[in-house]
Amino acid sequence: MPTHAERRVLNYTPEEVFDLVADVGRYPQFLPWCANVRVRTRTTSELVADLTVGFGPFRETFTSRVALDRPKCIRVTYEKGPFRYLNNVWTFSPDPNGCLVDFFVDFEFRSRLLQAAIGVVFNEAVRLMVSAFIRRAREVYGPPRFTGPSAVGAPVSR
């Protein structure tokens, strides 16, 4: 049951960071483990998507429902696929240096083999994912526009 919580300041507005995370269809362009995305439905407040992820010899597709509460929160819940459960929450709060991002993920695979395999690389996979979002923000929005003591993507103590 890997669980991860992280808090970071990104030197972009909450609206920009929200839009970046909500643009699920573009994940294969920048997330290293995301092989494919098919957005089934999308409204201003919700989307349903099939994501295919691959790590090592494993490749799995799952469906998730993504609640979009712009620009404050994105809540991902599991619909079907290889998990027993999956919960993922992003919150975006204004900060003097841009946006305070709180990220939480908790999941369990049905397969013990898959669960054991991801357990070995989970922390590294999450680190790569967070770094990929930070790089994507620079690609999409350019250099940070906020000045202050906080660096782009600086971790924040809880």
From TrEMBL:
Keywords: Ubiquinone. Pfam families: Polyketide_cyc. GO terms for biological process: cellular respiration. The keyword ATP-binding does not apply. It comes from the Bacteria. Residues 11-133 form the Coenzyme Q-binding protein COQ10 START domain. SUPFAM superfamilies: Bet v1-like (SSF55961). One of its GO terms (molecular function) is ubiquinone binding. Belongs to the ribosome association toxin RatA family. This is Ubiquinone-binding protein. It comes from Acetobacter nitrogenifigens DSM 23921 = NBRC 105050.
